[in-house]
Amino acid sequence: MIISQNRGKVKKIGLSLINKVKSELSLPVIKFILEMCMGMVLTGSTNVNLIAGMLKEKIEVRHTLKRLHRMLLNPRILEIGNRLSLKESVSKIDRTTILALDGGDLSHQYGEKFEKSCTVKDGSSGELRKGYWLNQISGYNPGSKETYPILLSIYSTLEAGFKSATNETFKLVDKLVEKIGGIGLWVIDRGYDGGEILKYFLGKGLEFMLRMRLNNGRNIIYKGKVMNISAVVPLINRRIKYGNNGRFGSIKGRIEINREEYRITVVSYKDKRNKEPMVFMTNGWIKSTKELKRRIRGYFRRWGVEECYRFEKQGFNIEDSRSRNYDRIKTLLGLTIISWLILIKVNEEPRLKEVVLKEARMEKDKAKDRPKFIYYRLIRGIRNIFSGVRRLFLFRLKRQEREKVRKDMVIQMPLFKNLPFYAMDNMLEYIWLEEAA
Questions:
Q1: Does a structural domain hold residue 110?
Q2: Which residues pair with 118 in a beta bridge?
Q3: For the segment 159-171, what is each residue's pLDDT rounded down to a tens digit?
Q4: Tally of structural domains, the chain
Q5: Residue 248 forms beta bridges with which residues?
Q6: Pairing status of strand 278-283 against strand 219-222
């Protein structure tokens, strides 16, 4: 495939995604989403100044910036991005899928004047900074070894209607559970071991593997006695071997939350890397050693959600945004989801994927040397494919200018005039065209 065809295929993938919700969007919004998503992929940033320059329009950059900033105030794009992501993800989720729930932060070290910014704990440095809280659900399929985003939300403790962090978590989880029911294994880290979270997952009969904090005062009922979980852990015999270095054991008990009792299994795991044992709580009484190993393995694969946060911060550099308006920041997050979906779709087309990976020009390019998390290479390959393009999209050109482009292309490639969309003027039919440098 020649370079222009590869560019066209990447842009058509973006268009096909947006077409799934085009009935809810006006034509200017469709154009805006296409421009911003491709701009994010090609610049590796959510910085609107960089994206405006990448579009290379015939007008001054300040006018492009003004239009983009105005369109960023659309409050529905985050919701649309989540809906597209959910629609793409549901078909991939089965009983073996690992569903990782984790919180994160979007912090700005010097962002004192960002609208509705609250105090958050920076996950990288551990320092308290100004910013916003994030919740994300990502999926990992052990069979295909694919990690993908499912849902993403942002909230501030200062915004109107905020109740609690737990309530924000419920809002996100409800959206997914409504679609998939009880399938999949939820893996959850410390910090989500509060009574309300436990009651939610136990009450809905969801499979989960939750890492517990021993100092949170949680009591369980073991052999008819109420005991603190820190006192129960030393009683667990870690007699079962896990891998080369780990051993684990489990006990069956009950937990009482709001006068309701639920069956739970407490697992104690330790290997040479950890001085203290890791303690997990999972739903039901698990008798099968194989099932316990599956759930422990599922928890250790939860790095995928952390890799998702890392990719959003490094691949799209969401903390580099200069927008201080809270609604604009929400919109930018929604656009990063759609941008990532474009990469996922490229990854699902074998021929295009190989071309993009080749264009990434990595030193180790053999299939055996490729990382499991392939999206960094994909974003680099797409960036190289589009390098040297004079104009990213032509749909903002006047009719006469578009005619000139078509005539130039016929001179360069005579067969171009035989293509079915040669005589069409609709924006969506010009989406693949660009002027090569």
A1: no
A2: 131
A3: 988 999 999 999 9
A4: 2
A5: 240, 269
A6: unpaired
